[in-house]
Amino acid sequence: MEPQAEEAPRLLEEGRAAYAKKDLARAEEVLNRAAQIDRSIPEIQHLLGNVCQDLGKLDRAISCYRRAIRLQGTNAEAHNDLGTAYFSKGWHEEAAECYRQAIAASPDHPMAHANLGQTLMRLGRLPEARRHMRAALRARVRSFFRRLLRRP
Asked: Are residues 47 and 100 in the same domain?
């Protein structure tokens, strides 16, 4: 690996640490540098999207999420997060499609089901919304019991 290519994963980790500490300005700065070095790492694009969304930079967040999805189309989290950005802009049909893509990639994704249910309620599609809210609840309960059974 070239020295500069090694820099992008290091900056990604630094960006993750800054994001975990809620230092959004630092996370944005570091992740922008990482993205300039290597635009082919989907995790950089996805995390930069999260940072931008948290900063209220929805258009930039949407661009980052789309880039992450182009690089890794089965990333349920990126589809779900793109949906939340669309929902924040009031683009409910687009948000619903993103949540459906997240569910296609990860059928037991509780947040994608809950987000889709909420979006469908906003769109007035109550029977379909209820199905997804129930699916979210079932997924959360399954996850809870899996964690409970894994405890020593």
From this structure: no
Domain range for 104: 93-152
The whole model's pTM is what? 0.89
DSSP letters spanning 38-72: -TT-HHHHHHHHHHHHHTT-HHHHHHHHHHHHHH-
pLDDT by position in tens, the chain (length 152): 455 668 999 999 999 999 999 999 999 999 999 999 999 999 999 999 999 999 999 999 999 999 999 999 999 999 999 999 999 999 999 999 999 999 999 999 999 999 999 999 999 999 999 999 999 999 899 888 888 888 77
Residue 101 shares a structural domain with residue 144: yes
